[in-house]
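Predict the 3D structure for this chain.
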Amino acid sequence: MQEHSQAGEVTRLLQDWQRGYAGADERLWSIVYFDLKNLARSALRDSGRDARHDATSLVNKAYLRLVGADVDWNDRRHFFLIAARAMRFILADEARHQLARKRGDGQVVSLEAEAPALSDHGIGNPAEVLAIHQLLDRLAEVRPRHEQLVELRYFAGLTVPETARILQITPRTVVRDWQAVRIWLLDKLRL
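Done. Predicted structure below.
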């Protein structure tokens, strides 16, 4: 994600958008679109899908969710946390639909069908995406920051430095927490 010198501008536009000022959402969108598209492309990079086409689709779907969201926007950081969460739910919905289509073709699909990858570089197979999405609710109860970490790293495809900036922690903490949460998720996925 590019660090815009317009971080304050994003915060101001979020507040204007929240107040209902005409055109604020369009100006905001023109500033954050490039970053969101890069996030989506990173998240989809190793998924075996057309990352360029699907990134555009994912960003547009996330935008529609964000426009309709009842959120008290704080700042740029908060915006990207919510955007990553929107991408998580969109990708989980798509995974659910893909699995349902496979079952409709008479194929038997289980969440254990393929070994989970939990890659640093993109979304896994639909069963993995859905299983991780479901586990994040449990994780949020005990470690909310770890839930955000998975949303940012796995579902939004952020790098370690980008994740550190958004979560306001050191890159070293991101690496340490990512290792711990991957172990926890892999353990739960193998049960």
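The CA atoms of residues 42 and 131 lie 20 Å apart.
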